[in-house]
Amino acid sequence: MDKAERIRLAYDNFKKGYNCCQSVVLAFEDILGLDREKLLAVSVGFGGGFGRTRNICGAVSAFAIVLGLYCPHDADPHKDKANIYRQIQELVKLFQERNGSENCAQLLKNVKNLTSDYEPQIRDDEYYKVRPCVKFVTDSVDILTDYLKI
Fold first, then answer.
1. Which 3 state secondary structure label does DSSP give 103?
2. Number of domains observed in the structure of the chain
3. Would you say residue 147 has pLDDT above 90?
């Protein structure tokens, strides 16, 4: 699958109602070694800036899930964590350069009538007109695809 196909898949998944993290993770389903249902389950809580707490953007959280499943692991937990943390920090920096922040609240600061409770907002035409999230989803897939050289 090429980068354009991955980006389109993430875009389509977001438009189908999956959250930002799920949309990014599913774009890499073919290389992650878990079935779709497991990927959806492991990524569902990261939407809305981690369970709609508006902290780290779910599209950014997806970096950790994809790297954790895709990259080889070291038998030494210290080396393993250091390797993954380094890579995540590199990816977050690239995302920040494009979008100014990795924080959901900051990324959505100009969205009017943004709700903050646990209930996700209804995805309708109005939602997609004012919500920049699909850009963050596609940016994350673009960044990850280049980073992983796939």
1. strand
2. 1
3. yes
* Strand runs labelled E in 1-150: none
Q: Rounded CA gap, 102 and 60, in Å?
A: 7
This prediction's pTM: 0.96
- Whether the predicted pLDDT of 100 surpasses 90: yes
Tell me the two tokens of residue 16: 């189908």
The three-class DSSP label of residue 28 is: coil
Rounded to an integer, what distance in angstroms lies between the CA atom of residue 81 and that of residue 56? Answer: 19
**Helix (DSSP H) and strand (DSSP E) numbers for the chain:** 10, 0
| Domain encompassing residue 29 | 3-148
Rounded Cα distance between 137 and 16, Å, is 13
Which amino acid makes up residue 114? L
For residue 76, give both structure tokens: 């030494």
Give Cα separations from 66 to 7, 43, 112, 115 (angstroms).
15, 10, 31, 28
What is the spatial distance between Cα 45 and Cα 29, in angstroms, rounded to a whole number?
A: 18
Rounded CA-CA distance 30/59 in Å is 18
